[in-house]
Design a protein that fits this description.
By secondary structure, the chain is an alpha+beta fold. Helices cover 35% and strands 21% of the residues. It starts with a helix and ends in a 5-residue tail after the last strand. The protein binds aspartic acid.
């Protein structure tokens, strides 16, 4: 990390004299610990493995990072066994599956949908919001109407399995958000394509048995996801309320802008969140980050957070370091 900071300062001084050669210098001076060649895809949790596979297929064929992250996370959205994303997501406490998603590209464009029902691929609706409307975010009925107008099919998202879990939960109806430390499947993905452009996507059914109308961090630009192609990107998972209070993804990118490596930036942002939440031992928040040069990082409050990293021919799960 220290070396990274030195490189940053070195480049700042050199920049005025050697701007045309900066790319060459930047490659030669990569931080060795976590730096890898493009294209790269990094995703949250186990479901990230299949999502990475699809994103990598697109990137290796010369596709851009926006197409890669959209199609990548759609794999998780379409998986009915995954009870935290898209179809099959666990419902809210009134029995409705409500979905949140957002997407950002390397030009700083952003799109988001929230509290969306009966649509299988909220990430694609978020992309349409970004590309076809003057807005960044549509919610609820408005988002649903827009999706239908755009040709998305109406689908019942509540699978038998999730309905059964909800029926079981109703026996006690204890309103306690389920955020365990090892079994989230909200998927956040960051990709850097062959041209070095970064995009990110984040999609979720949110907390199981949440209050009807509850929205977490995942569709909020700067909270669940942030990308600035000059610097890098970050995506968060875990207790959305804590991420919302501290705008974790934006914060990570800003720490990277200040010259910190993605790893250090993730540690600083989780450190800030921990400091602001005296009850942090009771929940999980985890973050992954990727910078412009191909350095990556990850950090979590609790042990048990896994992320999937794909580059070259490899696509593997790794466990992030944690604060506790
Ligand atoms: N961040 C998501 C939310 O709060 C949940 C998760 O990542 O598991 O809705």
């Amino acid at each position: 990390m220290r070396k990274n900071r030195r490189n940053f300062l070195f480049k700042a001084v050199l920049g005025a004299f050697a701007a045309p050669f900066l790319n060459v210098i930047s490659c030669a001076s990569r931080t060795p610990e976590n730096s890898i060649d493009f294209p790269i895809v990094i995703s949250t949790w186990y479901a990230g493995l299949n999502a990475n596979k699809e994103a990598m297929r697109i990137l290796k064929n010369g596709g851009n990072s926006l197409d890669a992250v959209e199609k990548g996370v759609k794999i998780a959205e379409a998986d009915a066994e995954n009870q935290y994303v898209g179809i099959g997501g666990k419902p809210d406490r009134d029995g409705y599956v409500t979905l949140d998603a957002c997407i950002m590209d390397w030009n700083g464009n952003a799109g988001s949908v929230s509290f969306l029902q009966d649509i299988k691929h909220p990430i694609s609706v978020a992309r349409r919001v970004m590309e076809k409307t003057p807005h960044v975010m549509l919610v609820g009925e408005g988002a649903h109407q827009f999706a239908l107008e755009e040709g998305f099919e109406k689908v019942d998202l509540l699978t038998k399995k999730s309905q059964k879990d909800w029926t079981e939960w109703k026996k006690t109806s204890e309103y306690k958000p389920i955020i365990n430390t090892e079994n989230h499947d909200t998927i956040g993905q960051l990709a850097i394509d062959k041209k070095g452009n970064i995009s990110g996507a984040c999609t979720t059914s949110g907390m199981a048995f949440k209050m009807h109308g509850r929205v977490g961090d995942s569709p909020i630009i700067g909270a669940g996801l942030f990308v600035d192609n000059e610097v890098g990107g970050a995506v968060a998972t875990g207790l959305g309320e804590a991420v919302l209070r501290t705008l974790t993804s934006f914060l990570v990118v800003e720490f990277m802008r200040d010259g910190h490596s993605p790893q250090k930036a993730c540690e600083l942002a989780i450190g800030r969140l921990v400091k602001k939440h005296s009850n942090h031992k009771d929940f999980q928040v985890a973050i992954i980050a990727l910078d412009k040069k191909g350095n990556y990082g990850s950090f979590a409050i609790q042990k048990g957070f896994e992320y999937a990293l794909a580059h070259g021919d490899s696509n593997e799960l790794a466990e992030a370091k944690s604060a506790i």
